[in-house]
Design goal:
mainly alpha; 3 helices
């Protein structure tokens, strides 16, 4: 039942519960504020942050270009179909006039 109750809690409720718990620990002397901060781990990834951002941008641009190409192709196909339909309609109207 506790799990179900947690799912219904808002973020504000969760934050209030967390701060209440921290206050209880501080009052009981269980909260050690003098504990050293954890050191940040160095970035060991093969790409720097700017390189990763540039790569992501490049991938997004490729996707955009592919989508634009596909849209242009579809638009050209639709125009060709409309032109063929108009030609067929014009020929049908021409046959009826005769």
């Amino acid at each position: 039942m506790a799990e179900k109750n947690e799912q219904n809690m808002t973020t504000d409720d969760k934050m209030k519960e967390l701060f209440d718990l921290m206050d209880e620990k501080a009052a009981a002397g269980e909260l050690d504020e003098s504990a050293p901060e954890p050191e940040e781990t160095p970035d060991t990834s093969p790409m720097s942050q700017s390189e990763a951002a540039a790569y992501e941008y490049s991938m997004m641009m490729r996707q955009y270009e592919a989508m634009l190409e596909d849209w242009n192709r579809r638009e050209a196909e639709e125009q060709a179909q409309r032109a063929a339909q108009e030609l067929a309609d014009a020929e049908a109207d021409g046959d009826k006039a005769e």
